[in-house]
Cytochrome b
Amino acid sequence: VHLLFLHETGSNNPTGLNSDADKIPFHPYYTIKDLLGVFMLLLFLMTLVLFFPDLLGDPDNYTPANPLNTPPHIKPEWY
């Protein structure tokens, strides 16, 4: 109820100055600011993915496989 009446009439201004001059409209300023932030985040993530794809990879994935040697921790169920 409080927010309904506050947005309907506006907040109280005890100094008597025009408070409309201090307001910034939401759509052109904050929308562009948020879209710029999202664009910068996506640019950073795309740079990581495209130029440094192995940056966060596990080093064990890059050791060459030996088809004649089974790792000791892998055992068939019937042993």
The longest helix spans residues 26-51. The helical segments are 2-9, 26-51. The chain has a mean pLDDT of 83. Residues 15-50 form one domain.
